[in-house]
Design goal:
mainly beta; FmdA_AmdA; Acetamidase/formamidase family protein; 7-stranded mixed sheet; 299 residues; 39% strand; 22 strands
Length: 299
């Protein structure tokens, strides 16, 4: 099993990056990762402004997967997410949805004990580790890891957890998968500018699927199917995520356009992933048992 150390990272997704490791399709790989602040906020005296944007959202990789060609899909099964014993949060004036209400830089160190984040003497929050940044290289250009897109990256979807499977586009040879920005716990919206940011070690299985049958990025877990979309506004992202799930129902489940729309209005839940990155991300969730009723199996 290959282990990619956290020191091998990128701060953008680009077809120009060189792979730091190469594996065959079907391999299991461990990605060690810094937190989104490059582990630079170690005490409450350390502040976001001292980190530098060149050290924000490092993504370990990229990984070249043999046999992955443009037009294919990279299936990434999240087998495990290990996290450190403490995480960090920060407030920054002028950033996030609370930018007009936050007046000072602060840093809060939050320990993890017995599966809970110890926010204060009164509040303990069950952890649910997830990966904030995970994506492949775009077809062209150099996109910061902090920005989401059709290639994935900083989607900040709290459902990208252990046991989930993420399908990503292969835009360049090898796919060039990179990931980082783990959170011990994060709410939908990520309304400040961060979740509970934490160093991580993520174990994944990567498999190349020929062609792109699903609307990408596409996420599944034991209970739901999810289409994730990024756009300048929440309205645009919401429409894209909904249209993508509608297309899935038409193309894979073979429902008519009318039936697919009706079904989404009855059991499809539109959720906000985050509202603080350069682009906003949303997801449309559909109960996975829909597939069972139509005897459909995902690849």
């Amino acid at each position: 099993m290959k282990i990619i150390p956290k020191e091998k990272f990128v701060i953008s997704m680009s077809p120009e990056h060189e792979a730091v490791e190469t594996v065959p399709s079907g391999s299991t790989v461990v990605f060690e990762a810094y937190d989104c602040f490059s582990n630079k906020l170690e005490t409450t005296a350390d502040k976001f402004s001292k980190v530098g944007w060149d050290k924000i959202n490092p993504a370990t990789g990229p990984l070249y997967v043999e046999g992955a060609n443009p037009g294919d899909t990279l299936k990434v099964e999240i087998l495990d997410i290990e996290i450190a014993d403490q995480g960090v949060m920060a407030t920054v004036p002028g950033l996030g949805s609370l930018k007009n209400r936050i007046n000072e830089e602060t840093t809060k160190i939050i320990p993890i004990r017995d599966g809970k984040a110890i926010f204060s003497e009164h509040i303990e929050i069950p952890i649910d580790p997830m990966i904030g940044v995970i994506g492949t290289a775009p077809k062209e250009g150099d996109i910061p890891t902090g920005s989401p897109g059709d290639h994935g990256a900083n989607m900040d979807c709290k459902k990208i957890t252990k046991g989930a499977t993420l399908y990503l586009p292969v835009n360049v040879a090898g796919g060039m998968l990179a990931m980082g920005d783990a959170h011990a716990v994060m709410s939908d919206g990520e309304v400040l500018i961060c979740g509970l940011e934490i160093p991580s070690k993520t174990t994944v299985k990567v498999t190349v699927l020929e062609g792109q049958e699903y609307p990408l990025p596409f996420l599944t877990n034991d209970t739901h199917l999810m289409t994730i979309a990024a756009a300048d506004t929440l309205d645009e992202a919401s429409v894209r995520a909904t249209e993508n799930m509608h297309a899935f129902l038409e193309e894979q489940v073979k429902l008519s356009a009318a039936e697919a729309g009706m079904l989404l209005s009855l059991v499809g839940d539109l959720k906000i992933c985050q509202i603080v990155n350069p682009l906003k991300t949303t997801r449309m969730e559909l109960p996975r048992n829909i597939l069972e009723k139509y005897n459909i199996t995902l690849k």
